[in-house]
Amino acid sequence: MYISKTGLIIAFHGCDLEVCKNVLNGKSQLNQSENEYDWLGNGIYFWENNLKRAWQFANELKDNPRKGKAVISQSAVLGAVIDLGDCLDLIDSEYLDLVKDSFYSTELSYQMIGMKLPDNRKANNSTDFLLRNLDCLVIESLHKKRLPPSFDSVRGIFWEGEELYHNAGFKEKNHIRICIRNPNCIKGYFLPRELDPAFKRV
Prior knowledge:
Layout: E1 9-16, H1 17-24, E2 44-48, H2 51-63, E3 75-82, E4 87-89, H3 93-112, E5 120-122, E6 129-132, H4 133-145, E7 153-158, E8 175-180, E9 186-190
Parallel strand pairs: 4-7
Antiparallel strand pairs: 1-2, 1-3, 2-8, 3-9, 5-6, 7-8
Helix pairs in contact: 3-4
C-alpha cells in the first residue's frame, strides 16, 4: 500500500527549439519514442529534476545526430510538470520483481519458438549499455501482459558515464529517467528560467 507515488514532479525534455516552441504554444505534442532499444520501453522521455542533463543530451544529439532521433538544429529544453500516475518504478523492489518475472516469462516464450533474446549493447565507444533492446523488450512484454489499464509511466535510475574520480561509486551522467506512456500524466509545459542571483535559491 506504500508503493503508489504522490505529488507532482518537475522534469525536462531536450529537443529542437522549434519543437519546444510548438509544444509551448499548443501547436503540437511531444512524440512517443518507439525504438526497439528504448531504455524504459516506449513513451515520452524526460530527465527528472535534471535541467543540466537535459541540455547535455540535446547538445549531444545536435552534434552527433543518431538514427531514429529527430534532428536538432538549435538545442532547447522543455520543462514539464508531471503526475506519474500508476508508475512502474524501477527504484522500488516490488516493481523490480515484476520486471524480473517478465524477463523469465519472455525468455521462456522465446525458447518455445526457437528464438534468441536480444542483447543490451554498448555503442559509440561507450562503456554503458546505450542500446537496451533486451530491457525494452522485457518492459514492453510486462505492459502487454498486465491487465488493463497498463502503467501510466516508467521510472528508472541509471549510472552512466565516466567515474567522478578514481574508484568512485558515482558517475558523471547519473540520472533518473522518466518514460511517460499516458500523455495525460503531463499536466503542463514551461520554459525553464534562469536563476536570479539577487535572491536566495529555493
